[in-house]
Amino acid sequence: MSEPQPSVLFVCVHNAGRSQMAAAFLTHLSQGRIEVRSAGSAPADAVNPAAVRAMAEVGIDLSTQTPKILTPETVRASDVVITMGCGDTCPVFPGTTYLDWKLDDPAGQSLEAVRPIRDAIEQHVRALLTRLLPEPT
Looking at the annotation, which residues are catalytic? Predict the structure, then answer.
């Protein structure tokens, strides 16, 4: 019998930069072993173009992603909810793990400024992946 698949929700206000990059990294690195969502309380019209370019540099395509609205149902359906240090309010439900990652906002930043944010997000995601999917012993 297989273990239930963990689910992770990444949240930031506009769901256009940090949360999109984090979701893309986790989707890529988990190879389908984790259900991944991202959302925002006030979604932007489109994903930040600098975030799309920064992720393309590491072989991950964000060009077809769109910002999504945060709903209580999305939070309730997630085992882990990660906010991106943007002061976002998120419904709290028992049994859900909440983490807050302090990350600079890539909104309005150049590609050069977004690269270190992207790299920090990747480090956080890799640590999360190790926690959620420990290697079999």
Answer: 12, 86, 90
